[in-house]
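Tokens in:
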């Protein structure tokens, strides 16, 4: 999944840059289904994608 993590991150960022937080959530939920459902996965999300999800979905303070 390592190579795909970058693609998932790109799609999440694209949704966020368009102001589409629902799209970010949808990408995350699709990713979760894959890592939980596939036998080769340990079911844990990549730390980089967890951090990106937090960055994109956490409301910013101070109008930034």
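Residues out:
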């Amino acid at each position: 999944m390592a190579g795909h993590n970058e693609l998932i991150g790109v799609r999440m960022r694209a949704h966020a840059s368009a102001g589409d937080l629902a799209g970010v959530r949808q990408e995350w939920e699709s990713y979760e289904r894959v890592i939980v459902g596939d036998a080769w996965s340990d079911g844990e999300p990549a730390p980089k994608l967890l951090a990106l999800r937090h960055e994109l979905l956490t409301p910013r303070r101070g109008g930034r």
